[in-house]
Design a protein that fits this description.
Length: about 290
Amino acid sequence: MKAAPFEYARAASLAEACELLATHGDGAKLIAGGQSLVPMMAMRLVRPAFLIDINEIAALKSVKVESDAVCIGACTRQCSLERDDALAARVSLLRQALAWVGHAQTRNRGTVGGSLAHADPSAELPLVARVLGARLVIRSKKGNRTLDAAQFFTGPMSTALRPDECLEEIRWPVWPEKRTGSAFTEIAERHGDFAIVSATAQVALDGGGRCVRAAFGLGGVGGTPLSFPKLAARLAGTKLDDAVIEDAAQAAVADTEPGNDLHATAEYRRHLAGVLAAKALREAHERARTAA
Ligand SMILES: Cc1cc2nc3c(=O)[nH]c(=O)nc-3n(C[C@H](O)[C@H](O)[C@H](O)COP(=O)(O)OP(=O)(O)OC[C@H]3O[C@@H](n4cnc5c(N)ncnc54)[C@H](O)[C@@H]3O)c2cc1C
């Protein structure tokens, strides 16, 4: 099929994009990398009357490393983050997660903001945003506001973004602890497909090898990516041995409500969630243990 007819404008600035969004309201959609939007338009799952292209807006492509956060413009291509060593040294989970996002070709066009705004419950970057507690800066003609990832994702393919808003920047927290390790893992039918279930974890250790901070989460087992801050807090002070990790993983699974679909049963998703949550925690722990 082909997309339904639409009008198109290329915005030269964020202010112009917001002006166009305010004018064309519900009928308008922003287009970034087009890796999700174009196939959906071609299948007529969405029929925007007006497309606003944000690819030429330089302000949406900046990457700033601050002391406590890495701030990434929403229209930054996934491939440029993948190659950024300075960024990987600060927020290693981004590079680890990106290796699972689609294919090199889709990452060449796909943007960080497009992935978050699309909000597929199995997508990798939304899960990392949720687990690390990323902050999302949102702009409209009326001004800007900032939301936590926990507030941003509201359901399958749905977010707190209003029709006149553009995601401007994502602030990914940098953990200060030297001995920090992270991991991302998933099971998909084929490499490059969306995950059936994904899991991620980040762990920081003290000099004696005890956990001082942990965060972990699961994708593909609910309408939004999930993180488990209360369970993660209970890991602080422990040695993160296999029994502790297994307990945390199983407790997390008990907090999920996966559905049945063409790809997997709820029971299989729960099984994968337990295995993958434990694997992510073990790998993150091992990397923290051997971190310089
Ligand atoms: C073959 C294939 C495999 C894929 N596999 C995966 C995968 O494994 N994991 C994965 O996560 N993704 C996967 N994707 C999807 C993809 O590559 C992107 O990561 C992402 O979903 C869309 O990013 P984009 O920049 O292309 O956004 P677009 O397609 O341009 O836009 C997606 C949505 O976000 C909105 N949007 C875009 N930018 C903004 C903004 N700044 N503010 C507000 N709204 C905005 C658009 O209006 C639209 O609704 C795959 C895609 C293909 C084609």
